[in-house]
Amino acid sequence: MKKIIAFFMVMCLCFFTLFAAGETESKKDSVKVVTLWTCWLDKGDQALLEAFNASHTDVQVEWELIAFKDYATKIVAAAKTNQLPDVLRLQPKAPAQYGQAGFLLPVNSIIEDNNWTDAYPENFLKSNTIDGNLYGIPFYCLPHLLFYRADLMEENNITPPTNWEEFKSAAKALTKDGIIGYATTLNDPSVGHTVHQWMGSNNADTFGPGLELTIDSPETVEVVNFLNSLYQEGCMNKDVASAGNNEFRMLFQSGKAAMGISSSSLIGILVNDEEMRKNVGVLPIPKNDPNGKNYAAFHSYSISSQCKDLDAAKEFLTWINTPENQIIYFKEGTRFGDIPVRSDMTDLYKKIEKLQPYMNLLEPAIETSKAGWTPGMAYGVTEYPGLFDTQNIYQQMALKTILGEATAEESVAWAKNKMAEIMAE
Amino acid sequence: MKKMTMEKRYSLYGVLLLLPSLTALAFFMFKPLLDSIIMSFKEINFFSGEPEKFIGFDNFRWLFKSEWFVPDLIRTFFISIVVTVVQVILAIMIALLIDFEFKGQKFWRGILVVPWAIPVFVASLMWKWLYSGTMSPFSKFLVSIGLIEPGESILGGEHALFALIISLIWHGFPFIFLVIYSGLQQVPQTLIESAVIDGANSFQVSCKITIPYIRKIIATAVVLRFVFQFNQFPFIHLLTGGGPLNRTETLAIAAMKQGVSSFQYGRASAITTTMFLVLVIAFAIYYRIAGREDLD
């Protein structure tokens, strides 16, 4: 009897398994599914993706959230085992890096077919382009800004700084009573931009017009010397060689640092702290060179080279990048510092009701985002900087001088040699 | 003849019973090891777009010519030896103390095992906070003895390596303590009682009877701890990441940088294969010096 019952249960299990599989198969036949990987999933993302699904009966998007720290490794492993999704949301420099490696398909046709070329800053498109192939459509921008304690500056009769001299003077004057003038990190490879921020403001770059390495330029030496002087004169946090990105931001958020340079995503955090928000001001990064640029990273959407249905993927990318659809992300999202890349979205963005109380913080972000810069962006050579960052070259370049291991000239020469080694490989 | 056939039959039976475990071992341990060794002879760069190709010993030549290889190798040995020796000495001392009957013995035995129960991620965050220049009360003490400046973290300066070693000693101590403490339970009471009757004090009993009796257990624990420490990755990666300026970088961290950060898997495999060979040679030398009887 027991054997009969057991046999019957096994047969039922097999039957239902086959039936369920069959039912799924027939569902898949009628609807095209676009698979998406992302390492960020805000309410705005979900609202946008759900709106796409609601407005389409023939194409549906299925998304998967991957942990940020595992994202690059997972993409590379999936590329090698033929398991890439159809669409990827990618961080700065990644589209060019992965496009070069053959993981992505060009998306020039989406921009051209929709006459969108003028809607995007030229530098942003260049940054995602290798050999004329555009590998990612910029979605939102995160310009880096100077966040400062307006209340402390007022107490000490200091005008918010707009150049390096004023910045250093303010940092020194504000370093007292347990507060540090300027907090940053030179330890966290995921935020190599803590050096880029100053390079851009001094018009230093990793590459020159002829694609030669210019990291050892006098401008970069000035950046290293400037950071070193901030540290040696006691107005930079002393744990700069060990603090991670979150730790240095916590210093600012907890009121223990008077100034910090961070991406506009910090605005999203300040929005939830009314007390802090009242006392914080935002400005572009102080410049040392009149031609200095403001660092601004951006995120993109790309189509993988293993995409199963290119037309469906293109339809998805076209839809989410159309202004009247993309605005859903900014309206519903809680990451208040994300700035639309498209120039034709600025007015739409500025009219979002829930952003009005924070426009004083967002206006500088909007203004600086349009002329945003990342190292090597101007010349389209972006398959390397991703590797320079993961190997922590920029931060180590500054740390070598700060910790007394080398002069600024020796440090930048070391950085150039390390980069040349990577490029030679 | 009949006896030999029976023996052979039992042997075969034993092998058959072991076969599933051996298969699992082969699949989950030996195959990945073999794959890694094979990869070390290939150029595998996911970003070059080129298929992987056999390049002989080029990865090893690159490794041995790299300016960081010898310092990292020395540093890895230094950390492994110091951590292992200190852990063993501390474990023997504390195990001998705990072995005496006293009020609260079980409580203290439990407390000593707590570091092992804390997940590596949590433990590393805990130590990072403890060493923080701005958030930890411990930093005031370090400033008072002149090790760091106010606001500085010991992990960001020239003493980062020693700070790392202290936290590694703490984290791995429970394992070696438990091994040695368990070994102490095997020491026959009659031996100790005889020694006491003959006039030996506690110190003499420990040095002349107890520790020599468990020397094989100590030797095994030393080998296991050294190997584990040599390959240690998660704690160092989470606490210092090999910084500042590679002052706490070990070969395991370097392998991660090559494999995960630079996607040069052939080179990463060359580093791990070298680590494996170094351990095999070190163990062979130890085995020869210590004598077979210590490990039988």
Structural description of this entry:
The complex is a heterodimer of chains A (425) and B (296). Chain A has 425 residues and is α+β, with helices and mostly antiparallel strands. Chain A has 20 helices and twelve strands. Chain A has helices at residues 2-30, 43-55, 68-80, 94-100, 108-113, 122-127, 150-155, 164-174, 193-201, 218-232, 245-253, 265-270, 274-279, 310-321, 323-332, 346-350, 359-369, 385-390, 393-402, 408-424, and strands at 32-38, 59-65, 87-90, 104-105, 129-130, 133-134, 137-149, 180-183, 257-263, 280-284, 296-304, 339-340. In chain A, helix 2 packs antiparallel against helix 15 and helix 10 crosses helix 19 (393-402). The relative contact order of chain A is 0.17. Residues 23-27 of chain A have low confidence and may be disordered. Chain B has a two-stranded antiparallel sheet with strand order 1-2. In chain B, helix 3 (69-99) packs antiparallel against helix 10 (215-230), helix 7 (160-184) packs antiparallel against helix 10 and helix 8 packs antiparallel against helix 9 (202-213). The mean pLDDT of chain B is 87. Chain A binds chain B through residues 73, 76, 79-80, 97, 100-102, 180, 187, 189, 237-243, 247, 251, 256, 383, 387, 390-392, 396, 399-400, 403, 405, 422, 425, and chain B through 45-49, 128, 131-134, 148-153, 155-157, 160, 240-241, 243-245, 257, 260-264.
